[in-house]
Amino acid sequence: MAGPWSIVETSAFDPVARVDPHARLKELREQCPVMRDEPAKTWLLTRYGDVRETVNDRSLWRYWGLSEKGALLRRMDGDETPPRVNSILSMDEPDHSRVRTPLAKTFYARINAMKPQIAAIIDEVIDSPPDDRPFDLIADVAIPIPILVIASILGVERDRFREFRAWSEASILGLNPLRTPEETERMTWGSEKLTEYFTQLMARRRAEPADDLISDMVKLQADGAPLDDEELRVNLSALLIGGNLTTTDLIGNGVWLLLNHPEQLAALEADPALASAAVEEILRYESPVAITSRIMSEPREVGGCPIQPHQSIITSLHAANRDPDVFEDPDRFDITRKHAPHVAFGGGSHICIGAPLARIEAKQALVRLFERFPALKLAKEEPPTWRALPFFRGMEALWVQV
Length: 402
Known about the structure:
single chain; alpha+beta; CATH 1.10.630.10; three-stranded antiparallel β-sheet; 16 helices; about 10% strand
């Protein structure tokens, strides 16, 4: 049950795993696929079958506060002090379905209604970088696309997009347990500004409804949906923060992979219809989210190992997505892969609520980017710097040129 690597040594906490987590995860999957990391008070699963079964099991708990004291994610989230209102990311039943069901239904309807506006925003962002000098794809393309798209969906006024982006980027610092005191101060400022803004916007939309998600949600409340204002604010913020970071990384990781696999880029440029398959392969091969977690609700065995109630389980999405029992030649990046049932978005009732929007944004961004810059290439020979953000996978910068 004890493996050659700790959970921390497979994450971006560790400088070696930050650059390439896959070698250590492969060793774990082969030697100790169900590992108890006693110092972290957590189990780590690395086989696809165990991961898929665990994330799909609706009887397991999601809220970290139900795990045993000292569990890694519980410590990272503050351990003893539960938030007054949880987001759907950490809610269990019946509250999870009560909040997620109307939010998801309304969100997906709004996405479908706004596909032309989403495409126009992506086009505008991709048209903005210079074509006569290198530029940072992360800062100039991958970060603004998801922030501006969600701002438009929510109903943020265009003249406040700049402020909204600043608040959003500051709030994302909350995902980093290694942030500096200055970053914590900036995070707090951004979160408070977003809360204040959402409160004001909800009030305005009750008085004067518009064609946006905030108006949709406050109308649902008025029609009897069992959601209070605080739950709505917390979950809109969670949608914003989680979706922005991971979609930024999906776009950035995808461009990096395609530029480093010119034969795959050539296939995409020859047949843009491969864009959807390309996004799925990027998600499988270099998923923006490295793990998801559950809390055991009753005694059971996983892979022959007894796991007790309240013990924390981390499932490695990265390891599962390269399991050779499921994926042929799993360490090969291939956008023509025919069957790629990856778990990059988790699974079960907690499958990523933003997955449909992330797919739309990444597909459109990749196609338009390489149309706009057909000679795009890496501007620096050295490898990129991967962010030291545990359990996420993305680059600090990606310099490119035409």
